[in-house]
Amino acid sequence: LGLYSGIGLAAVLVLAAISVTNLGVYYSRLTITYMVILTAVFMTAERYLLRQYETRLRRQGVGAERVLMVGTGPGAEMLVRRMSMFPQYGFLVCGVLDDELARGTSFAGIPVVGGVDELPVKAQALAADQVFIAMATQDRGRLVHLIKLCEDQQLEFKVIPDLLDIMS
Hints:
By secondary structure, this protein is α/β, with parallel strands linked by helices. The chain has 6 helices and 6 strands, in the order H-H-E-H-E-E-E-H-E-H-E-H.
């Protein structure tokens, strides 16, 4: 929508400039109409092709952000499966940290690499770009501690709430 608004605004400005400078004798309004239509077609095609190219690169792992999932709360499994199913989102889950699951097992197809307290070490070892925290919210003190650890490591983090938190 923004693309076509910009093209329409540019067409109006070109027509206004032609009218103000009395160049209407040299430039046909029909030519301007053709220009606007061709511009819209070519820019739409360009955006489509670039989006397809970007999706193909992301599926190959190029430009994807490495994510470390902390906790296995209610929304974590769905989120991990969604990120694995749609690599074009640009996220690659490189490991899961959880205290209840044993190291070496897997959670939604992603290996469990350690406990929650190992966050700083594992984030550095796995070269994680982001940390998604999906722990149960009963332990808010621990959640605040994990957020502080992410800030100290200058890691971008996202807190994944469970459905009960969202509803309340």
